[in-house]
Structures are given as structure tokens and as C-alpha cells.
């Protein structure tokens, strides 16, 4: 990881209208229905859950950022109700081929008052050695790639953060469970 170069780092926050005691970010993340994940960004395609070879919880997310399809294999490294840290060596599919990028995703929440919490969505992506070779073979300097990638990645994080906050809020207040019960009754 020492040789990996930072491509993008961004952090955005949004309010959650729920007491911090009701929020459990890992529970939300590892039970997030696919439709709910898709509702948090038009770039979100699919989500699922499994375990890593080491037995750790894993969230699989598929999305398109900056025109590149990404399959993220987020492994839980820290899972506390108010703080979740995930790491992924993500597959990136571009028009010129496939490579990998390392993504660090950190979700946290802090108490504002008895009824309000602040959610922070922090994402850092780093080029793997494989990725550096991939862009070198195409004659793309790293700094040029970085400059082109940053606006799309930052915009993605900025727009999904308030929607993730609303989803976490619904989960904390039990509204997702109520919606699922209503859907099951309709069927």
C-alpha cells in the first residue's frame, strides 16, 4: 500500500434526524436492500453481501463512476454502531480494459443533540501498482488521470451522502422494515 498513490479523497456530511443510539451503520450497510442502495444514487447498479475468505463481512457494490464500471468488494475492517471502515480492491472496467483501484470507505456518525446526528461519508481511492502499469501502457500520466477522475468521484460522493443519510435514518427509525411489510402485504 505504501506505493499506492492517492487518486481522490473526499468527505461530505449530512444530517440524520434520529438519535445516535438508534443508528447502527454496519447493520444498515450489511442488510441494505438492493433497491434502497439504487435509490441512493443513479450511478448505483447493484449491491449484495457475502463474507471474505477470512470470514469477515463483505459488501459488494456495483456502480458507474466517471464512465467506468466499478465492482467493489468492501471488507469490514472496523464495525461499530457509529463507525464503519471498509476496504476494497475494486475492479474497474474502462473502454480500454480492466484494472484495480484500492478504495477506503469510512462511514461515521456523531451526536448533535438527542434527536439529531451528523453522518460523514469519507472515500479515498488509491492507484494500485496494477493500475499504474495500466495507465502507463496507455501513455496516460498519473497526474492527468487524477485530474480527470477527481470531479466525477467527488460529485458522486457529494450527491450520495445526503441520500445515504436518509437511508440510515429510515433504517434507524424502522421505516425500511415497515415499507417491506407493506410490500409483502401487497403481493
Q: Any descriptors?
A:
187 residues; alpha+beta; Alpha-D-Glucose-1,6-Bisphosphate, Chain A, domain 4; 7-stranded antiparallel β-sheet; 5 helices; 44% strand; globular; SRPBCC family protein
Characterization of this structure:
This protein has a single domain (5-186), classed as 2-Layer Sandwich (Alpha-D-Glucose-1,6-Bisphosphate, Chain A, domain 4). The model is unreliable at 178-184 (pLDDT under 50). Strand 2 and strand 3 (57-65) form a beta hairpin. The protein is globular, with a radius of gyration of 17 Å. It has helices at residues 25-29, 34-39, 129-137, 142-172, 175-186, and strands spanning 5-16, 44-51, 57-65, 68-80, 83-94, 97-113, 116-127. The protein has 187 residues and is of the alpha+beta class.
Quick gist of this model?
This is SRPBCC family protein. The chain contains 5 helices and 7 strands; from the N terminus they run βααββββββααα.
CATH superfamily: START domain
Give me the CATH fold name: Alpha-D-Glucose-1,6-Bisphosphate, Chain A, domain 4
Task: Give the strand tally.
Answer: 7
What is the terminal separation in angstroms?
49 Å
Name the structural class: alpha+beta
> What's the CATH architecture name?
2-Layer Sandwich
Radius of gyration: 17 Å
Mean of pLDDT: 93
For the sheet with most strands, the description reads: 7 strands, antiparallel
In what order do the strands lie side by side in the largest sheet? 1-7-6-5-4-3-2
Strand content: 35-45%
Assigned CATH class: Alpha Beta
Helix content: 25-40%
Helix tally equals 5
Give the low-pLDDT segments: 178-184
Large-scale geometry: globular
Q: Could you spell the SSE succession in H and E letters?
A: EHHEEEEEEHHH
Taken together, the total number of domains comes to 1
